[in-house]
């Protein structure tokens, strides 16, 4: 029998371990099970190299809970340890056996990088016992124990099966880890895809089953061969969809996926899914899970996955990313930067491939894809360069193909270059910039859209959460392109080459009409001008300067310095169509009717912009009813 002190530089190491080794104490189970996986993988490696002869038997891991005895045991049938190895690896804190093994067996699939992993047991246990039998035939079975002080016991006992059992005597502060549901939850989170079968045994539950004589074949709690460790050629569509359902059981099936499989200049495997996102408010980040050799690490992958791809779902697995590192380490790690760039390239290549080969399918999924693409173009210049080829704009015009029962309706989509070609002759301003006309609310802005279409202009939809920022960003990135919302000006002025005709009104009538439209509207700064628009144009058109409207929109969602504009009055221009025949009648009415009719026309124009609210809206309704009643009386009198 051997007694001694664990060789550390301070006797206060155990209190430090208990409080500060990991922020989440549940990590102890991940560490101990992962070490058991290491031991099992090492045994297989030695067997494959001929250094271990004979049958290995079932190589598995058991997590055994005995709530009555207040113990939790992690038992493996792996490589085991000799007395010398126990002394070397357990009594020298922070010495990782994985590092030495890796230096000899470069191809071994060892998790490694754990350092103080074994000692995480002392975060939840008053006493830890280890019973281990080496794979070396001449070695005896070794018993080691420590009660959380820098003292241990180490001696040989009667021979047991090959492998290691770690028995934790759970302390009173950690009683939660004596609950079967708690242990199952931790195993499901961290060990769900480990490469060695793991069985959870609740002794109390097992005893009940024995009494009831119910014998069921135990099933491992993990899937040892998740799809990301397989070759894409081995998998079918159904395999990817089934795995997605396993990860996200309450989600719709994804649009498509990307299988990552890289072995140089870094190791990276995984599957990334593009989820369906029908509304901007459905966006959810932190849905990508990071693994290290199939051990779950975290779902906070901001520094590993490009920001715009945080919208994706799925898993990535890389042994080149240490399990226990700080964010500052990740930000400076060269492998992390390489992985980040590679993922961006793979996603861009996949999108381009689908666009080229299956464009109708690509367009049918644009409602969800557009968010990824636009977000990526704003945040990653390399992605922007590639995405310029497959970014599409959806036309407000619905095209119809076929006849009779075969007739189908579908939206038209343009790439940037296709849009330029389709609008080359009509949609350039006096600076020679290409004007992209867009709508943010097709229903509310329908009148403006129809007016634009009547002139032969092409109006596209820009109605997602990211479009306001996207428009501003692209005007800086793209040469000679300007975005203009359909309600930013009257149709005849949208493209500066267009000219308006003279008003049919006389100078005095024009001044009279302009004066009638000078009015006070709460929270709105009005400017009025009378122009000779076409007779088919509305009597009054309310427009908002593009720049000021953008700044107010950005300020409303907390857009930094633009927040200054959020509380400013709306700038609105009322363009009075002097050529509309309604004014010939209005100018002949008495002053009271003129004011009511003009104010109603102005309110209708403001209503089209969604700017008529509160008391102004109530006044509009009351006035409209009063005018209808007056008109009804006039008709009765004339009869």
Please give a quick description of this structure.
With 639 residues, the chain is an alpha+beta fold. Helix content is 37%, strand content 20%. The protein has four domains: 2-212, Heat Shock Protein 90; 227-382, Ribosomal Protein S5, domain 2 (2-Layer Sandwich); 392-499, Rossmann fold; 502-545 and 563-639, Heat shock protein 90, C-terminal domain (Four Helix Bundle (Hemerythrin (Met), subunit A), Up-down Bundle).
Polypeptide structure, described:
The protein is elongated, with a radius of gyration of 36 Å. It folds into four domains: 2-212, Heat Shock Protein 90 (2-Layer Sandwich); 227-382, Ribosomal Protein S5, domain 2, CATH 3.30.230; 392-499, 3-Layer(aba) Sandwich (Rossmann fold); 502-545 and 563-639, Four Helix Bundle (Hemerythrin (Met), subunit A) (Up-down Bundle). The strands form four sheets. Strands 1-6-5-4-7-3-2-8 form an eight-stranded mixed beta sheet. The chain has a five-stranded mixed beta sheet with strand order 9-10-13-11-12, with helices on both faces. The relative contact order is 0.06. By secondary structure, the protein is α+β, with helices and mostly antiparallel strands. The model is unreliable at 94-98 and 105-115 (pLDDT under 50).
């Amino acid at each position: 029998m051997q007694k001694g002190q664990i060789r550390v530089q301070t006797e206060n190491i155990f209190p430090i371990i208990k409080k500060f080794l990991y922020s989440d104490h549940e990590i102890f189970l991940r560490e101990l099970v992962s070490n058991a996986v290491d031991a099992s993988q090492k045994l297989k490696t030695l067997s494959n190299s001929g250094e271990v002869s004979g049958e290995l038997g079932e190589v598995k891991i058991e997590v055994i809970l005995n709530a009555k005895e207040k113990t939790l045991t992690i038992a493996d049938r792996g490589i085991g340890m000799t007395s010398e190895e126990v002394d070397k690896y357990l009594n020298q804190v922070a010495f990782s056996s994985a590092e030495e093994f890796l230096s000899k067996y470069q191809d071994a699939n060892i998790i490694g990088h754990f350092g103080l992993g074994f000692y995480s047991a002392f975060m939840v246990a008053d006493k830890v016992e280890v019973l281990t039998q080496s794979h070396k035939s001449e070695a005896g079975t070794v018993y080691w124990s420590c009660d959380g002080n820098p003292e241990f016991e180490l001696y040989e006992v009667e021979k047991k099966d090959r492998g290691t059992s770690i028995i934790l005597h759970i302390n009173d502060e950690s009683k939660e880890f004596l609950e079967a549901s708690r242990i199952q939850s931790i195993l499901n989170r961290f060990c769900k895809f480990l490469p060695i079968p793991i069985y959870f045994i609740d002794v109390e539950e097992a005893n009940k089953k024995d009494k009831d004589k119910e014998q069921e074949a135990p099933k491992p709690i993990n899937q040892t061969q998740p799809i990301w460790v397989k070759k894409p050629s081995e998998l079918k569509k159904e395999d990817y969809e089934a795995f997605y359902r396993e990860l996200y059981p309450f989600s719709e099936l994804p649009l498509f996926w990307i299988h990552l499989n890289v072995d140089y200049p870094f190791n990276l495997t995984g599957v990334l899914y593009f989820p369906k996102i029908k509304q901007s408010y459905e966006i959810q980040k932190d849905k990508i899970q990071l693994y290290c050799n199939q051990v779950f690490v975290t779902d906070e992958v901001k520094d590993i996955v490009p920001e715009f791809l945080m919208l994706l779902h799925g898993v990535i697995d890389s042994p080149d990313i240490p399990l226990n590192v700080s964010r500052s380490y990740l930000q400076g790690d060269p492998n992390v930067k390489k992985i980040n760039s590679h993922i961006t390239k793979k996603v861009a290549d996949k999108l381009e491939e689908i666009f080229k080969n299956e464009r109708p399918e690509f367009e049918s999924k644009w409602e969800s894809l557009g968010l990824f693409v636009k977000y990526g173009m704003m945040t990653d210049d390399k992605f922007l360069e590639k995405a310029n080829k497959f970014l599409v704009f959806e036309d407000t015009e619905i095209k119809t193909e076929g006849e009779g029962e075969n007739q189908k309706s579908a939206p038209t989509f343009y790439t940037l270059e296709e849009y330029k070609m389709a609008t080359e002759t009509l949609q350039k301003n006096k600076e020679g910039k290409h004007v992209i006309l867009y709508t943010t609310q097709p229903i509310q802005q329908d009148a403006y859209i129809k007016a634009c279409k009547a002139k032969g202009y092409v109006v596209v939809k820009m109605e997602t959460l990211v479009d306001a920022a996207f428009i501003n960003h692209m005007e800086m990135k793209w040469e000679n392109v300007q975005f203009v919302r359909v309600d930013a000006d009257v149709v005849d002025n949208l493209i500066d080459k267009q000219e308006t005709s003279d008003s049919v009104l006389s100078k005095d009538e024009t001044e009279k009409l302009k004066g009638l439209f000078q009015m006070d509207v709460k929270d709105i700064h009005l400017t009025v001008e009378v122009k000779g628009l076409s007779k088919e144009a509305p009597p009054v058109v309310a427009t908002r300067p593009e720049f000021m409207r953008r700044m107010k929109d950005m300020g409303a969602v907390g857009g930094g310095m633009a927040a200054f504009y959020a509380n400013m009055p709306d700038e609105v221009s009322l363009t009075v169509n002097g050529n509309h025949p309604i004014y010939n009648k209005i100018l002949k009415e008495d002053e009271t009717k003129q004011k009511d009719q003009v104010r109603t026309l102005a309110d209708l124009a403001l209503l089209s912009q969604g700017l008529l609210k509160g008391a102004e809206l109530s006044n509009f309704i009351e006035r409209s009813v009063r005018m209808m009643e007056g008109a009804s009386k006039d008709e009765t009198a004339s009869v």
